[in-house]
Amino acid sequence: MYFSSKRDTWLGLLLWIPIIAGIVLTTWIPSSNGQYDPTGLFIFVPIVAFIAWLWFGTGYRVTDDELRIKCGPIRKIIPLEEIVKIESTRNPISSPALSLDRLEIKYGESKTVIISPRDKEGFINLIIEKCPTVKVDSNNVDNSSKKRMLICIRVGAIITVLAMSGVGTLMYFSNKQASYTIQGGTLKISGEYGEVIKLSDIAGIAIKDQIPEIRLKTNGSGLGSMLKGYFKLKGIGQAKLFVDTQKPPFIFINAKSGLRIVNTEEPSETDILYKKLLEAWKQNATPK
Predict the structure, then answer these.
(1) Which of 134, 169, 204 is at the close of a domain?
(2) Other CB atoms within 10 A of residue 72 CB
(3) Which one, 21, 39, 102, 114, has the greatest CB density within 10 A?
(4) Where are the transmembrane segments (predicted)?
């Protein structure tokens, strides 16, 4: 008979929230054409597959003479005749169990294994039916185990909150428009992926109503229509963007370090930035 593992909600949140957040943040290119960047999938799909294997593939099968434990790729077989005692525990030690509502099985010469069948009573009754000599103490949960359980739950909750806070913070800064400062012969781009560009390193500046089609995100972030970082553009190749694709126009800056495309929250502000940048560049450009 097969008994699936009980699954604690907090453990599921601890496992899945960071992974789902990572997939969203690394794969979604929120460009106007709604394309996806598959790079993140190559990283996260194997991780998701492995976690899913553990999450849905943990269980315990009792045959006529064996207890077969399965946890993803992990397999363990215990002869029923070797089982000496079964007792309840909340020991958070790593084991083939997805809940802290656990059973510790003692067998052989001082060997133990911890499992967490969803139907604990049915599991214990079946073991007793096949091995009447097995001792059972299903109510023995000592204070130290309870303390370990509480600590584990608190740590899990803290990690989950920190992960969610980190994702929220990253999303906030990713969706925040860059700011620009022209002074001292430089253009300073502040914010995520920001940099300082010497005006003397700029070969040309232009303003356009459209940006080329985005083919791939190579090292950047994108939430909604806000794109920051390095992207591959059709007909151009790699460029560094600081743009809101829904708010043209866009300023194209050909610098020694590569093409930069920027804009601001308002079209009128982008026009003003372009004029100021063009004037400052002409004054600071290195004579040919």
Answers:
(1) 169
(2) 16
(3) 102
(4) 9-29, 41-60, 151-173
